[in-house]
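User: These chains co-purify. Model them together.
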Amino acid sequence: MGMTITEKILAAHAGREKVEPGELVNVRVDLALGNDITAPVAIREFERIGVDRVFDRDRVVLVPDHFVPNKDIKSAEQAKIMREFARKYEITYYFEVGRMGIEHCLLPEQGLVGPGDLVIGADSHTCTYGGLGAFSTGVGSTDLAAAMALGETWLKVPESLKFVYHGEMPEWVTGKDLILYTIGKIGVDGALYMAMEFTGPAVEKMSVDGRLTMANMAVEAGAKNGIVPPDEVTRRYVEGRAKRPFTFYASDPDARYAREYEFDVSKMEPAVALPHLPENVKPVSEAAGVGIDQAVIGSCTNGRMDDLREAARVLKGRRVNGSVRLIIIPGTQEIYRQAMREGLFEIFLEAGAAISTPTCGPCLGGYMGILAEGERAIATTNRNFVGRMGHPGSEVYLSNPAVAAASAVLGRIAAPWEVI
Amino acid sequence: MNLRGRVWKFGNDVDTDVIIPARYLNTSDPKELAAHLMEDADPRFPSKVRPGDIIAAGKNFGCGSSREHAPIAIKGAGVSCVIAKSFARIFYRNAFNIGLPIFESPEAAGRIEEGDEVSVDVEAGVITNITKGEAYRATQVPPFMQQIISAGGLINYVAERVKKDGNL
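Assistant: Joint model of the two components:
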């Protein structure tokens, strides 16, 4: 019996020929990641272990991105704990404000993660790097602390679900829409403890940005990881960028899957997830018309160049509706600069949008766009739970960047073709 | 070890934003976090919950973010354990790692109602509903995870290993 790509990466990092779903394995970690929310707790636990160094100062990555630039005094204290730890243990990859980015936009861009890697991060969206053909998964702070000390962690080998996306992607349909439909189909625990493997012609033609978006939201179906088999598209992205050697793994033809799903993307419309779960998915034409107060374009899900270009295509020569605040957050400093070079900022500013420095900010109701009671937002983020973006009496609708931009222009949830 | 307490019942897919909203994540102090436990589901919950109380819920408890602040807040409020039909995977790991007892039991999660008096035999994995006079079985925990529990959490387990092997 063959192995899936997920099983192969786990086996390689466990020093084993073969692993089986359900087995508990001890694996070597290529990279361990923390942010300003989770790292302070991890650091407190790390100090209790009784080691005087991290396992490898080039393989612990610390990114202040959630509540920085510091939103208040308590957040400033948290960020300071992480900064001082990075200095004390001479962490190579600590990214300060002005040189940082939203962690899951930043690490692929900086070549810190690559195909075949095994990455754990104290952030649930660490599963993003599966878009490059890595095994990556979110853990809590204590798991991060142990991995920072030992350079290894324990994992249960997950069963795999295979998703095959057939057909040509219609205009305005993106990786975000494919993953939203998939979550809508299987539910927020439809892949609980499992690996989601994304394959098929539509994925093969998708850019790395789109693939990262798909893998990013695997956790929204309860998955342990999402993964796209690496190919030439991946190779073009990682070559000249990767800071470590990488390995391409592929699932065997006789690999075992718990279930297989086939989708025809050619008739799909952009998707919208209604409050208060990411599984409440409808085609945009069925969600259209709902009035909005705010639109947010950014986050670890949709804060990359492809996303900003899609938004700019809709916003060019148009104005944000008088009753809407449009907040655009490029995912990293590099994306920020590139968007500026391409003239996207001119389009956004002409439209009446606010452009923010990279931060997770509003996605998790931190700052930079909190909702008041009764307010409604459309966002390119990943969760629409009760109170996610502010007051428990507010609402979040999830969509792709073009839909969020079109909605900002019309002041209500709208399809891009209503604007262009 | 036996745990015993009065039950607070919640539904399916209780997410970590409901357990502890992100606006309070600028601290990791258990008492401060406990003061806001579940407040977006029930603003009065932090003042109603008593040490020893038990939380019971449906499927996918703790879905969403990786924030360890969620089990820390539950433990900080003195809740003795969580019983659910199923748990989201990061929450599941986090609870074991910090020493918050959790029990997966579809049967118990289905039968237990708010206000029931429940006791749990941790070693045997048996949940007894004293109010209803019923008993339910919890899903077996892998031996490795039992070692983490016996050590008093992951960090103690790792620290013991480091002490034995020297500074790795």
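Residues 73-88 of chain A form the longest helix (16 residues).
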